[in-house]
Amino acid sequence: MEVHFVHQASSGKVAVVGVFINKSSQENTTLKTIFNLAPATESSTTTNTINNFNATSLFPANTKDYYTYSGSLTTPFAGVNVLKAPYFEGLRWFVLANPINVSEESYKHYIEIYEHKNARPIQLIGSRKVYHHTVNK
Q1: What CA–CA distance (Å, rounded) separates 121 from 137?
Q2: 3-state class (DSSP) for residue 33
Q3: pTM for this structure?
Q4: How does pLDDT run across 20-57, given as a tens digit for each residue?
Q5: DSSP tag of 88
Q6: What ranges do the domains of the chain cover?
Q7: Which pLDDT band holds residue 11 (cuts at 50, 70, 90)?
Q8: Angle between helices 104-113 and 29-37 (to 10 degrees)
Q9: What local confidence, expressed as pLDDT, does residue 41 receive?
Q10: Among residues 13, 46, 79, 91, which is most buried (max CB within 10 A)?
Q11: d(CA 49, CA 34)
């Protein structure tokens, strides 16, 4: 699994921070809360509030080891036909090298609700360059 944090500057430029999620005996309490508040089915909707939500609770402890590359969105723009829509190209990806964890129980709960794995097939790397960054302190 992976969680994406999509950011858009006032200039229109887009950047995405990606965090991988591994199944583990350890639980990320924020993910568990989100999954428990999710709609009962993929096609239903619900509105919930998580008090004192801090997005950094979905980041690993080490955020200084990451990969970056030029890519595209993994989902089409809202309201556009998934099969025909172009995916926004030319944005900057930052993928953290270290994952966060989700318990087997939370993972199974998520899979029960969301049957579709991806909106789009995995793309070939092509001529794209992927850079690995590490900051040692």
Answers
A1: 38
A2: helix
A3: 0.82
A4: 999 999 999 999 898 888 877 777 778 888 888 899 99
A5: P
A6: 2-134
A7: confident
A8: 30
A9: 74
A10: 91
A11: 10
Tokens of 21: 């999620």
Contact 110, 1 (CB under 8 A): yes
CB atoms within 10 A of CB 48: 10
In one-letter notation, the amino acid at residue 27 is E
Half-sphere exposure of 132 (CA within 13 A, CB side): 2
Q: Tokens 């794995």 label which residue?
A: 117
pLDDT band at 119 (very low <50, low <70, confident <90, very high): low
Measured between alpha carbons, how far is 135 from 62 in angstroms, rounded to an integer? 10
pLDDT at 121 over 80: no
Q: Which residue has the tokens 């509030």?
A: 49
Rounded to a whole number, what is the distance in angstroms from the first to the last CA of the chain?
Answer: 29
Q: How many residues does the chain have?
A: 137
Do the Cβ atoms of 107 and 1 come closer than 8 Å?
Answer: yes
Four-way CATH pick for 2-134: 3.30.420.240, 3.10.20.740, 3.10.200.10, 2.20.28.160: 3.10.200.10
